[in-house]
Amino acid sequence: MFHWVFISFLLFPLLLLGRDLNRNGVKDPYEDPSVATEQRIENLLSQMTMEEKTCQLATLYGYGRVLKDKLPTPSWKKEIWKDGIANIDEQLNGIPELGPNSKRNYRTQVEKINPLVWPPSNHAKALNEIQEWFKTQTRLGIPVDFTDEGIRGCNHYRTTAFPSQQGV
């Protein structure tokens, strides 16, 4: 069961693409949406190294937490995510820029500190640039997933945090 759940999360973004992700000039079965899912999974797994498989089990915490760069840099080819990564959490979400103990006015400072957070069009362009790096600079071109979830809503600048469910 776990094997199929893991693979479905890994393969889902690839189902939508159908292009030469590994840039070998051939449409491999894992890149072809017309091929049966089981065959695509087996083909992709057979091409992945142990490092690539391990990285697909990992979450990388975004800029201000683990990532030191807001956008891809040449140094990314020397980091563990050079082999891909399953997920980047809280990337450019506007939360780490000030930190929980900041004395600065949160609402008026985030946009000045990091213009990639707001407006949403800037945020989308930044995430697209990061996604493009993973699709073109990793060996198999496996896209990355982005998350910003919080227990009570989206954990991002200018989003709604719903009331806590304590005592429910």
Detailed description of the structure:
The protein has helices at 2-15, 37-47, 50-55, 106-113, 120-137, and strands spanning 59-61, 87-89, 145-147, 149-150, 153-154. The protein has 168 residues and is mainly alpha-helical. The protein has 2 domains: 1-47, no CATH class; 56-148, no CATH class. The strands form 2 sheets. Strands 1-2-3 form a 3-stranded parallel β-sheet, with no helix packed on it. A hairpin with a 2-residue loop joins strand 4 (149-150) and strand 5. It is globular and about 50 Å long. The two termini are 32 Å apart.
Query: What would you call the structural class?
Result: mainly alpha
Question: What's the overall average pLDDT, rounded?
Answer: 77
The number of distinct β-strands equals 5
- The percent range for helix content is 25-40%
Question: What is the ordering of alpha helices and beta strands?
Answer: HHHEEHHEEE
Number of domain modules:
2
Strand content: 5-15%
Tell me the span between the first and last alpha carbons: 32 Å
Compute the gyration radius: what is it? 18 Å
- Read across the widest sheet, the strand sequence of neighbours is 1-2-3
Unreliable residue stretches: none
The largest sheet is: 3 strands, parallel
The backbone outline, from C-alpha atoms, is: globular
Could you give the topology of this structure?
Layout: H1 2-15, H2 37-47, H3 50-55, E1 59-61, E2 87-89, H4 106-113, H5 120-137, E3 145-147, E4 149-150, E5 153-154
